[in-house]
Amino acid sequence: MLTLADGVRLHVSVSGPEDAPITVVLSHGWCQDRRTWRHQIAALGEMGRKAPRVVAYDTRGHGRSSATRLRGATLAQLGDDMAEVIRRYAPSGPVVLAGHSMGGMTIMEYAHRHPEEYASRVSGLLLVSTTAEGHTHTRYGLPPQLANVLRIGETLGAGLLARSGAWRPHRAVLPALRPALRWLLFGDECAEEAMLLTMRGLGRAPLRSIGGFRESIGTQARLDTLADLGDLPSAVLVGGRDRLTPPACAESIAGALPGADLTVVPGAGHMLPLERPREVSDALITIVRRVARQAKRNRRQIATPTRRSQKAA
Fold this sequence. Notes:
It is globular and about 60 Å long. It has helices at 38-45, 75-89, 102-113, 115-121, 144-162, 174-185, 192-204, 207-212, 214-219, 223-228, 247-256, 272-275, 277-312, and strands at residues 2-3, 9-10, 12-15, 23-27, 53-57, 95-100, 122-128, 234-239, 261-265. It is an alpha/beta fold. The chain has a seven-stranded mixed beta sheet with strand order 3-5-4-6-7-8-9, with helices on both faces. Strands 1-2 form a two-stranded antiparallel ribbon. The protein has a single domain, classed as Rossmann fold (3-Layer(aba) Sandwich). Pfam families: Abhydrolase_6.
């Protein structure tokens, strides 16, 4: 458990070798929790001697972390929280960041608010089903005019929920919401386990978190931040049927992020880590391996002049 400066406690899970040369930090989406990454955590653990250290945490106001005050329900605050997580649980060595949906936006805020720290620590990046342009491309799979009406209603409703406190009355009606959630969040296929985990995550999120983060999520604009990042191993994944962050979001990110590999997964929706776990795991493992090779080359370059100096002496 990590206690932040404002008293919020983050639930953090750490796995993998303590002496691993690389740390992977996983950030989940809005109204979900760290269990979104369960398949990827398992896949990284199966890398044997080359397995990285893995840090997965519940964002403030989500999962098993404590509730947040309304003024803390912003992407800017989440970027600062990520900085604290990295300082505490990955104080040295290369770091690979992976973010799903709001988690990807959190990474962008971290890069924006802590640019020097980001540049010195982050060696790999995976952005899954996310956006750097707020709700610019979000149409919910509906005609534009109807989508605009829905967005207005959603924004007004979010404002009311944000002021409703840390209780969770929506748990009682989640079964009735299941068909709508299935349509909104998933594509052609949806395993029962994936649906249940998604609903449980939503059930754990208090009303303040459901409504409070909506404003900063809808207005974020971080394409310029991405363009300023260095050329490092990175990948952008999106489902071809994603109704919340459609392929146009990923295409903009890949266009701004130097050297990023873009993958559009046919028939998939928004919950890619659960919906298409193998594709997401493979992309993450590929980045980890690339970062490991680069770190090994860097260590050799540092060691070679030292050996030459010893011989000369």
